[in-house]
Amino acid sequence: MPAPLSVQTIRDAPKVLLHDHLDGGLRPATVVELADAIGYDALPTRDPDELAGWFLGAAHSGSLERYLETFGHTVAVMQTTEALARVAAECAEDLAADGVVYAEVRFAPELHVERGLDLDQVVMAVLEGFQAGAARAAATGRPIRVGCLLTAMRHAARSREIAELAVKYRDVGVVGFDIAGAEKGFPPTRHLDAFEYVRQQNAHVTIHAGEAFGLPSIWEAIQWCGADRLGHGVRIVDDIAVDADGSAKLGLLAAYVRDTRIPLEMCPTSNVHTGAARSLAEHPIGLLTKLRFRVTVNTDNRLMSGCSMTSEMAALVDTFGYGWADLQWFTVNAMKSAFIGFDERLALINDVIKPRYAELGF
Length: 362
Fold this sequence. Notes:
alpha/beta, TIM Barrel, Metal_Hydrolase, A_deaminase_dom, nucleotide metabolism, adenosine deaminase activity, zinc ion binding
C-alpha cells in the first residue's frame, strides 16, 4: 500500500528544485545576526519570529513596492564574503532538511558589491558556502547536490560580465546564466550579447519570463535569446483556449513550448503573492499539468513566501488532488531539466528518486 500523503511523507520524498533565490531564502535569525554584525539598523524588527511575519506580510500585501523592499533588507546584509558563505551554506542545509536532493539556487552577483567586494569574490564565497552546507547536510544523512545560477539584472548593463562569470566558474559549481527583474519595459533582447556569448560557450540559459508580463516576453526569451528553461512562464496559458467542454486548443507558441519540452519553472505560492495568479486553485499549473507541459514545482523565495518544497507539494495535493504519481512526475521533470550532465541527472533519477518513491509505495 502507498504511504499516506502527509506533510511528513512529502518531506521525506526526494525533491528537485530549479528556481530558488538565495537572497529570498535567508533564515530570519540569520538576517538579524548579520545586520548586527555590520551595524545595519533598518530592519523593521530584530525579533526573528516577528521578522519572519513581516516578510510574509509584505509578500501578501499586494504592494509590489513593499514586496521589493524585503529584498533590500536581505541584500543589505549579504555584502561580505563571510555573510555570503554563511547564507549559502544554510541554504544548502535547509533545502536538504526539506528532502531536496538536487537544487539550482540563483543570485545576482552585481547586487553584493556595495561594501567593496568584486564579482569574483562574491561568486567564490557563495560557491564555498554551498560546498560547506552540502558537506554538513551529507554528514546528517541528507545528501544534496547544489548548482549555482548567476543572475544578471535586466534593468542594468552588466549582463555580459555576469555571463562571462557563469562560464568562468562552470567547472566549480555554476551551472547556468539567468536574467531577472522587471519584465515590462526591460525585454530580454536588451541582453542579446550576453545570451549569444553563453550559447557560443555551450552553456545553459534560463530566463525569468511570463510572470509579470505576457506572451511577448516568453517569445523573446525562447526565439531570440535561446532560453533552455522559462522562469515562471505562467502567462503561456494566455496562448491556450479552453472550450466550454474543457477541451483545449494550443496557440503556436504554447504548442512550441510543449512540443519541444521547454521546462516551466513554476512557483505557485510566489505567483499568487506577486499577482501572477489570483489563487492557487486558479493557478495555470493545473491546466498545464493536465496538458502535460514540462511543469516543475519550485519555491522562488522561501523567506518572503513562507514556503518550502514540502509546503508547495502539499498545497498542490490539497488543491488539485495530486497523488504520489504526480509528485514523482514533477520531480523527474525537474531532474531531466537540470543544467548538469546527463549521466549525473540519470543517476539521481534511477538511484535516488525512483527507488525512494518505490519505498513510498509508488
